[in-house]
Amino acid sequence: MTLRILLIDDHTLFRSGVSALLQRQPDLEVVGEASDGVEGIKRAKQHLPDVILLDLNMPGLSGLETLQLLVEDLPDTAILMLTVSEDADELTAAMRAGARGFLLKSIDAEALVAAIRKAASGQPVITEHMTAKLVEQMRKPAQPASAPGAARASAETLTARERDIVRELARGASNKEIARALDLAESTVKIHVRNILRKLNLTSRVQVAIYAMEHEGMADGAGERGR
């Protein structure tokens, strides 16, 4: 299956370089480019890409604002932030807003291609040394105002089986991997994930993983295994 990719970045030469790189892959197709958030949203609705590579710092509509609008309009599209920023707050804000991953522009070509394929399969991807920053950030006292709805979410509403699935999501497992680990049908896992998102008032599996990290005991395997 060919993965359709949209590039949103205000640097023309960078877009051209990434596009040329990705077009060499037989399973990747760059279906469009945009130089700002407004144009990017328009092209995203036009092409319905599988993966969007989105710059964080752009003039006009910021990358974070663009991300929030894209997640709302195209919830099934994997959006990867591709940026020079190593700011932990921006990383956390992007992941909370629904980004599937956070990559630095210094990433090598092979790793970028692998990240795109992984994100398209439903798994979160974060540049390795930024992962430690995310974990450190998650250990700080939660700021409910920065995550709308999170303050109202309660793990107590989850069933034992849903808690099992939350732990697997926190490890970055795909639906297929969760189904194999818990001896469930993949279709059943999808239903559980949808119910978890609804109960926790979240919009993406990445946000579920962050929620699990913020609530000690959910991501470390503690608790009862599903009935």
Describe this structure in words.
With 227 residues, the chain is of the alpha/beta class. It has 2 domains: 136 residues, Rossmann fold; 71 residues, Winged helix-like DNA-binding domain superfamily/Winged helix DNA-binding domain (Arc Repressor Mutant, subunit A, Orthogonal Bundle), CATH 1.10.10.10. 49% of the residues lie in helices and 13% in strands. A 6-stranded parallel β-sheet has the order 2-1-3-4-5-6, sandwiched between helices. Helix 7 packs across helix 9. The longest helix is centred in the C-terminal third of the chain and has 15 residues. The C terminus is likely disordered. One of its GO terms (molecular function) is DNA binding. This is Two component transcriptional regulator, LuxR family.
Order of helices and strands: EHEHEHEHEHEHHHHH
> Rounded to an integer, what's the Rg over CA atoms?
17 Å
CATH superfamily heading of the largest domain: Response regulator
**What overall geometry do the principal axes of the alpha carbons give?**
globular
CATH class category name of the largest domain: Alpha Beta
Q: What profile does the largest beta sheet have?
A: 6 strands, parallel
Number of DSSP E strands: 6
The average pLDDT score comes to: 83
Number of helices: 10
The overall number of domains is: 2
CATH architecture type of the largest domain: 3-Layer(aba) Sandwich
Distance between the termini: 36 Å
Content of β-strand: 5-15%
